[in-house]
Amino acid sequence: MPFLFHELPGEVRNQILRLLLTHSxxxxxxxxxxxxxxxxxxxGLTPHILLSSxxxxxxxxxILYGENTFQAHPSYLTDTVFAMxxxxxxxxxLCVSMIRRFHIRVRRDCDPYYKSEDVRRVFSRAEGxxxxxxxxxxxxxxxxxxxxxxxxxxVKKAKVHGSVGNEFAKWxxxxxxxxxxxxxxxxxxxxxxxxxx
Length: 197
Hints:
By secondary structure, the chain is α/β, with parallel strands linked by helices.
């Protein structure tokens, strides 16, 4: 007898699709003192399952784009989103709208190319947001490049790491995880602004 995938209960189908369409390995980026883009790697995904039927396509698409972490572009945010290989961008607006987990690398010693309002609009209410901070040399650059992220709210799980002080990272994570519309206290500037040991 042929195996009829669609006769399985929905929960079982979703479990199978998650095994084929999601990855648990973290996004691998270059080290903080390298400016080259990350190298593509094989995530072990099997997106060909989406071609088996229209029903599988629609069920699997939300899992593929909604449950994986995608790299947001450091300048264009979600206008240029990719999984691992920057040359293979997600170009479908429908697919981009399904993405709920982001990773972004922010260079601390440069002015950002985006506005604070854009950061708030794009990343608020995300399921996951990882902000990896780096800079070209030690001791330069304040937290101005991260100012836009202090307006983000409603993130389910935020993580800030890299060339950033521990107190500031914890404060920014708490701010981004606070409820939408919540007002928070500004971060108190201290020596930590430049001392990231």
